[in-house]
Amino acid sequence: MINTEPSLAIAQRSLRDPSVTYPLFPVISTGCPQTSTEDVQYPLALVYDYGRFDKSLFDQSPLPGLERWQPLLPPLAEGLSMGEGGTPLVSAPKVAEWAGFEVSSTSRMRAGIRPPATRIALIYVRSVRQNSAARRV
User: Fold this and answer.
1) Three-state SS across 42-94?
2) pLDDT digit string (tens) for 13-52?
């Protein structure tokens, strides 16, 4: 059973032409029927009623489960949680500096560190930056 009440999702919208909308259900996953062509299937995005959004949602403790974020997600099937969503965000200015990202006092790179995937991604970013700098010399 799909629980639609807590979600702020209200419709589906074409990414090709945002004026083209469809009801939230049934979900259209094969591209926009009106704007897609034989060559390009333009996906649909969800439209949310942000006027009803309660900013206190961000004051919650970092606990697992997606249900607490349900207003910002599409309608979820009840009882299908795997405990996901509990990774805290931590400030990582040294990691950002190591990877070659600029970090200022007004904008901080934040990352929930999850080795090995994050480490591999940062190593790749660093190697790309080093290779492009070497080509300029």
Assistant:
1) CCEEEEECHHHCCHHHHHCCCCCCCHHHHHHCCCEECCCCCCCCCCCCEECHH
2) 999 999 999 998 888 989 999 999 999 999 999 999 999 9
CA distance 85 to 82: 9
100 Rama class: left (phi>0) / alpha (psi -120 to 50) / beta: left
- Is residue 20 within 8 A of residue 43, CB to CB? The reply is no
Chain segment 64-78, per-residue pLDDT in tens? 666 777 888 887 666
Q: Do the beta carbons of residue 13 and residue 20 sit within 8 Å?
A: yes
C-alpha–C-alpha distance, residues 14 and 46, integer Å: 9
Is the N-terminal amide bond of 116 cis, ω within 30° of 0?
Answer: yes
* Other beta carbons less than 10 A from residue 135's beta carbon: 7
Q: Distance between CA atoms of 112 and 130, rounded to whole angstroms?
A: 24
Q: Do you know the residue count of the chain? A: 137
